[in-house]
Each structure stands twice: as C-alpha cells, then as structure tokens.
Backbone:
C-alpha cells in the first residue's frame, strides 16, 4: 500500500490514482433533456404542488357552470359557497399547521364545540361581559391545544392516538358542561350579540359576504405570512420534513410542535366564534363531522400527510373544491349521498396524486 | 518522541477544544470509555477508529448532540457543558453530520440559514418578524460560489433535487459560514464519488487555511493521510494514540487502530 504514496512538496501525501481526478472534465454527469409528457407534468407538479387542486377547482367551476347555468356563477351563490366553507376553512388552517409537522389532529371539531359552549354559557348563564366570554372561549381553545401538544412532545405519543383520545374527552366534557342543552339564538342575541357578530353580512356587488368569511380569509393571509416569512414558519416545515435534521440544525422541535398545537387550539376557538355566528345558537351536537372535513380540505389542497410539504393556500383551495362540489351537485339536483361519494373520490385521487408527486423521479 | 509514546501534545498551547475523561454509556454499552481529546488552532485533526470504536459518540459529545455521563469539555481552556447542538454552535463549533442533516423539502438558502435566519431591519423585522429572504439568498449564493460549489443553477431549488455531493456541499458551506472556532466533519466523503471527494478535501483545507481548526472523522485512510496534520486513533471507546502522518504509515495506523500493534512501540511492524 505504501508504494502508491508519494510525498508532495507540502509534506502531504496523495494517491496518484486520485490526483488524476483533479484534471477531470468539469461536467460530472449529463441529464437527458427529452422528457415524456408524463414526466413534464410530474416535474411541474413537483415544483407546484398546489397546481393540481387549482385545476380541479377551475374544472369543477366550468363543469357546474355548464350543467347548472348562470345561477351557479352568480356572486350570490359563490358567496354562499364561501359562507358554507368558512368553518371548515378555519379549522383547515389549524389542521394544515398540524399536518405540516407530520401530525394529525382529530380533535379540532371537539375543541371548537367546547369553545362555543364555554362562550355561550359564560355569556348567557353567568351573565359575563360578552368580550370576557369570548376570551374565555379562546383560552379554552389554547388550553386544549396545549394539552394535545404536551402529550405529543412530553410523552412522545403519536399525534393520531393523542387526538383520538382527546377528541372523545373534549366531546364528553362539552356534553357534561353544556348538560347536553342548546343555548338558543334569541338568548344569545339578547345578552351577547358580539358572539353572533361573525354571522352578519355585508353586500358587495350582489355577493353577500359574512364577517366570518372575511375572518377566514384574514386568517389564511396571516398564517400564510407566518409560514413563509418568519423563522417560525420555516421551522414548522423543517420539523415536519425531517425532525432529526431540524434538531441537529439547532431547532427546538418540541417547542415548535407545542407552539403549533397551541396555535391550532386558538384557531379552533376562532372557528367556534364563526360557528356561533353561522348557526346563531350554541349546540353541543354541532360540528360533529368537522374533524374529518378539515382533514379532507387539507388533503385535497395538496398538503402531504407525511409532513413538511404543502401550503396554506392549498387548504383554502381544497375547502373551496369541496364546497363547490357540494353546492354544484345540490343545484344540479343530485342526492346528498352522491355528494359524499364525490368527496370520497376526491380524497383518494388527491392522495394518489400526492404519492405520485413525491417520487422525485417518475 | 517523548516517553508518553505517540501522544504529541503541544504543551505551550491551549487546545481550542479539549476533553478529559469523557464517558457515555447506553444501557450496558459503553460508547465512550474515559477518553481524552485535544484539538489545537490551525490544524486538521483526523479521528480514525474501527467500526463501533465510538468515534461518532465522541463527536456527538463534542458537538452537543449527546451529553456525556462524566468528564469535562474545555473550549479555549474554559470548562463548558453542551446541553444541545445549539450550545455548541453558540460557542462557534459547527458540525457536518454523517447522515447529512439537511431538510430535503427546504431550499438551499433556507437550509444554510436554518435555525439562524436573518430578519429584515427595522419594524418589519422586530415587530412583524419578517425574514430578509433577499439578503439570505445573496449571501448563500456568494458563499456557495466562494467554495466553488455553485454548479447549482438556482439557490432557491429544494435540496432533494441535488446530488449527494451537492448536498454535502450545502452542509459544508453551512459549517464554514457559521463556524467561528471549530468545524467538525463526520465522514464527509463517505457518500461521495472520487471527484466530489477531492472537492470536499479541498474545502477542508480551505477551511483550515482560513484559520479554523477542523476535526475530520473518516474511514478513508488515503484521505486522512492526505489532509490531516495529526491523527487521533480511537479504539474501544478511548483515545489510544495520536500520530503524525509524517512519521507513521497507513499500515501503522491501521495496525494501532485494530490492536495489531502497541502504539508505544511504533515501527515494530515496519521491518
């Protein structure tokens, strides 16, 4: 072995067979430039994961406009769709944050309903100032999120199991605390109109926008900013993408996870406020399917369930796709069960596309 | 060579990074067994050892990724404890990990600045916490081309689209960018081809010539003997010798490393 070593002027020894490599050509590898149409689409979707849901949305709008006609595209109808997706859209923001960290939150709907019950009872039965009742609801949301986050980060339990458990716990608590009774709309209106504020609408070019919908859009912009333009957002992506790499890069991933669950809890409380505005009353039975609907919106929006990949506006598109399909099918006179059927198909197609996109080479 | 055998301490200098009596146990396995470590200014110190000798554990202890059960670490002669990688980094110790600690879905600039992003000046940065993406991208491009690594067209492309060598380049660039005291590289050439390896070895020399001492963990004897100023040999969880590539051959190093030769009698196998 030592015969192949020669000392260099600096005293270093270098292997002859590797020294030759210093004079090697600069281009190490060439890449085939001819791509099949399939590869082109793959490459495009890989760099623009939200493109697929956007295309589905545009295609759905075009199809339903052809089937239903003018009525579908009327601003009034479109603003109705926006109102219908408000709750799911807001919960979808919370769900997106959790899914970006490679987690899942089955308890978002339960946290939301628990918050509405606290807001309603504090204002109506205890006669507290509406502002205080609202803040109490937000505090409950934050606390519920903190419980989820603590179980995930301290006990290292899988988010699926943690939130499956807290989903049941929060629903039980809310039935206990509300005594399974609905607080009627008139009672709330009499003492705490602030709680119903999100249900008020403003007219704009024939569209009827609720404050709740505007709140949702504002929330999307806020979280988009936080995810893309702050260190926290970069760390959320890094934590979901590769937690070990993130930790070695000096990110305190447990703190990031905990903060994500708390923020998600607060967003659920915001959804609670929007929900009271939308239905007027406070019912412990409301929003029972909201958990899964929020996951649907996130998945259709192109966010990967494996974490680290996806975008917040994808979730808005995903929520709108579901809303447009439901509304369009209803206006076409299709039975409700086929709406569910279609949403189910959309989920499977969306995850299928995600799997395909995630393969770096097709 | 002094009586203590092959351990050549430069007694007139304070080591930049030093460890005494480090111990780390995982259950019944002792990964680090009462080992010492010395790194001096301006040198490339190679750490070699057989598989399972505890090189990686030693390096993790020195970079804050694991906390030793016993022993002391000194930075410029001052006793220090690292509870996490951030502690070591705040002391200017940067590490390039073997498993390429980069985030594949993030882009190159994001990866370079991960964990120490630059915020915009003024109210945008202090109140709205807005990142200065432009500044980070420019600095990242500057650094990458400084190190001769900019065959990459777009600093905004995700790391998963890069080759193994380019990813290693991103990791090395990150350590060279932020390391102010020590750069530790764990098997930087293990996953690379011949040409990419040569470039990384060049980078290591470049970092040393900039004045930063480098700790190089490697299995590749020719690479070690080519760049190292001193070689720390690890065996069964502890340092058993420090040799110079000028006085010892590769076969000596391998013999000491595997226990075939007593480090206190160098040259006994040379006949």
Residues:
């Amino acid at each position: 072995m030592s015969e192949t070593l020669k000392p260099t002027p600096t005293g270093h020894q270098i292997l002859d067979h590797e020294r030759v490599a210093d004079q090697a050509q600069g281009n190490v590898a060439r890449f085939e430039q001819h791509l099949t149409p399939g590869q082109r689409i793959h490459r495009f979707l890989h760099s623009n994961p939200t493109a697929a849901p956007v295309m589905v949305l545009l295609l759905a709008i075009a199809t339903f406009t052809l089937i239903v006609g003018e009525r579908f595209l009327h601003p009034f109808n479109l603003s109705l769709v926006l109102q219908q997706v408000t709750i799911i859209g807001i919960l979808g923001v919370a769900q997106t944050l959790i899914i970006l960290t490679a987690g899942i939150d089955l308890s978002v709907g339960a946290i939301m309903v628990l918050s509405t019950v606290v807001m309603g009872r504090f204002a109506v039965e205890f006669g507290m100032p509406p502002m205080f009742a609202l803040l109490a609801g937000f505090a409950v949301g934050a606390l519920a999120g903190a419980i989820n986050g603590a179980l995930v980060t301290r006990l290292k339990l899988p988010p699926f199991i943690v939130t499956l458990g807290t989903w049941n716990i929060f629903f039980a608590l809310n039935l206990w605390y509300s005594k399974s009774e609905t607080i009627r709309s008139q009672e709330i209106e009499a003492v705490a109109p602030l709680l119903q504020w999100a249900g008020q609408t403003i007219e704009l070019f024939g569209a009827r926008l609720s404050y709740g919908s505007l709140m949702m859009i504002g929330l999307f912009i806020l979280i988009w900013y936080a995810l893309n333009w702050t260190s926290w957002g970069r760390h959320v992506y890094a934590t979901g993408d590769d937690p070990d790499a993130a930790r070695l890069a000096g990110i305190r991933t447990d703190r990031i996870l905990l903060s994500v669950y708390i923020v998600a809890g607060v967003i659920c409380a915001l959804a609670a406020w929007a929900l009271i505005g939308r239905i007027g009353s406070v019912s412990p039975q409301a929003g029972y399917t909201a958990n899964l609907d929020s996951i649907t919106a996130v998945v259709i929006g192109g966010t990967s369930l494996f974490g680290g990949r996806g975008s917040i506006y994808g979730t808005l598109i995903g929520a709108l796709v579901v809303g447009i399909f439901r509304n369009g099918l209803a206006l076409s006179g299709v039975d409700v069960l086929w709406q569910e059927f279609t949403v189910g198909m959309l989920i499977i197609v969306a995850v299928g596309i995600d799997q395909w996109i995630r393969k770096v080479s097709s | 060579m002094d009586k203590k055998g092959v351990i050549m301490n430069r007694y007139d200098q304070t080591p930049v990074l030093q460890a005494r009596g480090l111990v780390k146990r995982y259950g019944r396995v002792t990964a680090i067994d009462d080992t010492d470590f010395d790194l001096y200014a301006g040198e490339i110190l190679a750490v070699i050892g057989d598989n399972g000798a505890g090189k990686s554990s030693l390096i993790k202890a020195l970079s804050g990724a694991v906390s030793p059960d016993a022993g002391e670490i000194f930075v410029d002669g001052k006793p220090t404890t690292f509870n996490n990688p951030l502690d070591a980094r705040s002391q200017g110790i940067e590490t390039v990990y073997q498993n390429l600690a980069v985030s594949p879905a993030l882009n190159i600039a994001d990866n370079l600045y991960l964990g120490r992003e630059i915020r915009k000046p003024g109210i945008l940065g202090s109140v709205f916490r807005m990142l200065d993406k432009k500044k980070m991208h420019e600095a990242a491009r500057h650094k990458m081309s400084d190190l001769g690594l900019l065959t990459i067209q777009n600093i905004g492309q995700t790391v998963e689209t890069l080759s193994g060598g380019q990813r290693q380049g991103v990791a090395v660039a990150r350590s060279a960018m932020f390391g102010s005291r020590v750069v530790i590289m764990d098997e930087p050439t293990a996953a690379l081809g011949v040409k990419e390896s040569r470039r990384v070895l060049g980078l290591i020399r470049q970092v040393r010539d900039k004045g930063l001492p480098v700790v190089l963990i490697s299995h590749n004897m020719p690479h070690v003997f080519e760049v190292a100023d001193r070689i720390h040999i690890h065996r069964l969880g502890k340092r058993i010798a420090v040799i110079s590539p000028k006085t010892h051959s590769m076969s000596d190093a391998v013999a000491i490393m595997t226990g075939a030769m007593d480090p206190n009698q160098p040259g006994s196998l040379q006949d």
